[in-house]
Amino acid sequence: MNIRKNIYSLTPQELADFQAALNAVKADGSYDDFIRRHHHAMMTATPMAGETPDENRRNVAHSGPAFLPWHRYFSRELELLLQGKKPNVTLPYWDWSADEANPAAAKLWNTNPAAGPVYVGGNGKVTTGPFAGWTALVENAATGALVPRPGGILRELGSDPAFPTAAQVEDAILNRAVYDKDPWDRFVDDGFRNRLEGWLAVAGEFGSQLHNRVHIWVGGDMGPGTSPNDPVFFLHHCNVDRLWARWQHTHPTAPYLPPNGGPAGHNLGDQMQHLTTVDPTPARSLDYRRTLGFIYDTDPPLVEAVSLTVNFYDVPTLETTWQAAVFRVRAGSPVTLEVVPGSGPAAPYTLTSLGGSVTHTPMVDNAPFDLVRVWFAFTGAAAPGAAANGAVKIRCVETGEVFDFVLTANTVARPTTGVVFSLDKSGSMSLPAGTGPTRMQVLHEAASRCIELVRDASGAGMVSFDQDAHPGVKLAPFGPGLSQRSDVLGAVNALVPGGDTSIGDGVEAAHQMRAANGSAFAERAIIVLTDGLENQPKFLDEVRGLIDTRTFAIGLGTAQQVSAPALTKLTNGTGGYLLLTDALGTDTDSYFRLSKYFQQILVSATNDSVVTDPAGVIAAGEEVRIPFGLTEADIEATVTLLVDVPAVNLALETPTGKLISEADLAALGATVERGTNMTFCRFGLPLPVGAGAHGGTWHARLRADEGALHEEIARLRAAVERDPARGTDLERLMAHGPRYSLSVSSWSNLRFGARLTQSSMEPGAALRIDAVLTEYGLPIDARAEVVAEVTRPDGVLMRVPLDEELPGAFAGEFTAAMAGVWRARIRARGHTHGQARFTREQQLSAAVVVGGDRPSEHVVGSDEIENR
Length: 868
Fold this sequence. Notes:
The chain is an alpha+beta fold. It contains 18 helices and 40 strands. Strands 33, 34, 35, 36, 37, 38, 39 and 40 form an 8-stranded antiparallel β-sheet that branches. Strands 8, 10, 12, 14, 15 and 16 form a 6-stranded mixed β-sheet that branches. β36 and β37 (797-806) form a beta hairpin. The longest helix is centred in the N-terminal third of the chain and has 19 residues, at 232-250. It is elongated, with a radius of gyration of 38 Å.
């Protein structure tokens, strides 16, 4: 906020910026315009009707009521000019009456850096200090023109020893309750303006006082109408304006005078001359904190409610939203806003973990006011509907003002999501995936798991494509008693490879299905999987313009095998993203990668977040205990266990150490399902165990089921007799035990999302990762760190820290120097408002290929071409 401070209280940086900005406007010539305008204002008489024009009796800016408004605008105009050079600079003031005991020894004139700050330089010709050697503009005695005088500004400190006192200042502020009087000139016998300006004769005082006396005491260039030659002019007039502000706050009902009938340019609504401000009238200057956007550090706070209603709009069931009572605060010192004890809020509204009191310390910058917030929370009810209104009182401690707020809220159903799968069934899907099974077999398993994880009330549909699109199952909700889930599963598992590749046909068909059947869902998404290069029309470039919904793509293969540039363009700007598997192998990470990609996309499409996602192997008789953190911000958790053979049991351990089996979880109301080599449990928080299990460190406890494992080994032995190539699978299982991947995701008030953009599709591209963290809809500010663990195409792992560029917004960049797939796991760690530790993560990928920026050269022919 534009807080004008005592020059002695400026920080070293604030002082340096002020001095640098002044030198900058002097150097570019714009400062000299203030010298000219002030001089011309003094030379322009403003007579009353019937008066002889006399600029010494009254002029545009002096010896009349407009003296204070005119200089208020004039000083603000310089302040804005300085902020064009240094944005956070504000005009400081010199409280000269505080130096009355020995003004010549005031710190302001110090020239020795060892003795303290050097503010404005010293006495005489100013040849040292920040403004040394300034060229003055002085009046030519013969012509009256202003001409340059090089060599430095001049001061004659104390040539007349009289100096204003603090007692005189207090007299002017406390005892002069009338702003000005007729005849509105230097000769009036009372009034605050004439007293502060310095013309009013007071018994026992010598000559002019206050404003005038400072000009005379400093002397030199501060004396004539060209007094802005010395930057001390603005320190002095900033203080004069501050004293007027004090008078205004001391006499809040005293009006500016005259409202009309006075000299031209001095009435309340008159335009004043030689100013650059739009509509510079005395009237507009009075409420300076609102109209001119600055405040003094000695001003009382000005606190206003932006609105007296706090609205919680459309809060999904069980989600918690924070909203604030917002205040505009104009203050030069700390301000405390507090909820009046006993005034509310009452359920279903609550205070937040931040409490019911906030103390705001204003920052010095160029904002016209600060926004200060007192936060409240509302949790959506179990069923949609409007909540009863609430009420609360908030008090400003410093002013005693009390603000009465109304709280309103409504609950809506949790958004459902309809997903259309567009799946590649071209001939190349019969090739080995690298993990053992064929690509189609891997797709059957991965897509099935994803479909099994879709919540009831949400739903899915499926289309497939080779050289043409093929309708599968229309998009419709899942639910008890409905066959939709099994219909989609059946259609996916019935896919048989064959034909060429037209990804565009598949995307167009998915778009048409989404458009025809998507209205049943609040959110909609398309997931495209392909393993090859498009080689039949329609091509992606032809259909990209159709896409108006969130679109995700998975490329099953390397950067050279998949149409990565086209898929990147397809997903960009939709809110979705592209994931590329790269070449897969038999290691655990590769084995589950496609399934994990499908799972992560489903999590993203439903606005959930991944908490953790480890993988490994578990030997017979061994138990693996995997920690994961849940917080008070989490509403529901889903723990998903993927295995290569169905021989692993899942149990959960609460933060208090209570072990809960799959059967126990189901009895506690959790959803527990066994699917395609997968077990998942989904439970609301708190879980009703003891006093309720919610935030803290949970553990997933995995144990190999020895009986089931023996059965799987026997089954594999029989398979090896028919197909000796399966021997490796048998040996791996016997040596290491089952492979697993555990994923924990949460429906949460704490959300994390990341995206990757690239400057080019060719080697040398700059890759940028952006991530956003919010809690209760607000940025997580300075409470988290985010790091990208990037796997290069050659397998080397590199760490890219993301900087917090804005509150809750993180970004980092790196160069993709080599061709291939760049995979990144973005990990966030931090603490919630309630100080609980959290983790979030997301996988992203990018491809760069030689020639990737050139237009696609589509090859029409056999699907095998794309894999050579």
